[in-house]
Amino acid sequence: MSASTTPSSRPAVTEREAREVAEAAREQHWRKPSFAKELFLGRFRLDLIHPHPVPEDEAAERGEEFLAKLRDFVETKVDPALIEREARIPDEVIDGLKELGAFGMKIATKYGGLGLTQVYYNKALALAGSASPAIGVLLSAHQSIGVPQPLKLFGTEEQRERFLPRCARTDISAFLLTEPDVGSDPARLATTAVPDGDDYVLDGVKLWTTNGVVADLLVVMARVPKSEGHRGGITAFVVETSSPGVTVENRNAFMGLRGIENGVTRFHQVRVPAANRVGEEGQGLKIALTTLNTGRLSLPASCVAAGKWCLKIAREWSAAREQWGKPVAHHEAVGSKISFIAATTFALEAVTDLASQMADENRNDIRIEGALAKLYASEMAWTMADELVQIRGGRGFETAESLRARGERGVPAEQLLRDLRINRIFEGSTEIMHLLIAREAVDAHLSVAGDLIDPEKSLGDKAKAGANAGAFYAKWLPKLVAGPGQLPTSYAAFKHGVDLSGHLRYVERTSRKLARSTFYAMSRWQGRMESKQGFLGRIVDIGAELFAMSAACVRAEMLRSQGDHGREAYQLADVFCRQARIRIEELFTRLWTNTDDLDRKVVEGVLSGTYTWLERGVVDPSGDGPWIADATPGPSAKDNVHRPIR
Question: How far, in Å, CA of 53 to CA of 36, rounded?
Answer without folding.
Answer: 16
